[in-house]
Design a protein that fits this description.
Layout: E1 2-9, H1 14-32, E2 35-39, E3 42-47, E4 50-57, E5 60-67, H2 75-89
Antiparallel strand pairs: 1-5, 2-3, 3-4, 4-5
Length: about 90
């Protein structure tokens, strides 16, 4: 199973970080048809061929995504989209 992992340090307040994560999940839901749910401070994202988790703590946002065979063809653009969002929304 292909996938990717991204990490970024943050200093912003946790509530702002949660809102940025909510916005990212909403964007991915609209654009890629995935579903999201919160489990504590972990945001789970699941869809056809996609299983991901965003977690934050100790000043670091961690995102890990596993992609099925068909979804793995879109790994690079999806990874770039998530990285761009992190760079723009997380400080």
């Amino acid at each position: 199973m292909a996938g990717f992992r991204l990490s970024k340090p943050y200093t912003m307040p946790v509530e702002e970080l949660r809102e940025a994560a909510r916005q990212l999940a909403a964007k991915l839901e609209r654009k890629h048809g995935v579903r999201s749910s919160w489990q504590g401070d972990n945001l789970r994202i699941r869809g056809s061929g996609v299983d991901g988790e965003l977690s934050f703590g100790d000043g670091v946002v961690d995102i890990s995504v596993q992609l099925g065979l068909l979804a793995s063809a879109f790994r690079k653009p999806l990874q770039a989209e998530v990285q761009r969002y992190l760079d723009e929304m997380v400080s």
